[in-house]
Design goal:
Layout lengths: L32 H36 L1
């Protein structure tokens, strides 16, 4: 029985499989609208956090003043 040999590729020599470039950009927004929207969302979240911190601070201060009288 003869050993089984693989068939020759159609193009002659075989090429090594190259892995995909992991540093390539997946999504590029040339208009800048996406970045502007994300910036506005970030500003809104920071403003909300500051308002919550201020509200907790004021609420704590009110309790301190109420307990002194």
């Amino acid at each position: 029985m003869e050993p089984i040999t693989p068939a020759e590729p159609a193009g002659g020599a075989t090429e090594m499989l190259q892995p995909p470039d992991v540093t390539a950009a997946i999504f590029v927004d040339g208009s800048g609208r996406r970045g502007e929207r994300l910036r506005l969302i970030a500003y809104a979240l920071v403003a909300l956090a500051l308002l919550l911190i201020l509200a907790f601070w004021v609420a704590q201060g009110v309790d301190v003043f109420a307990s002194r009288t």
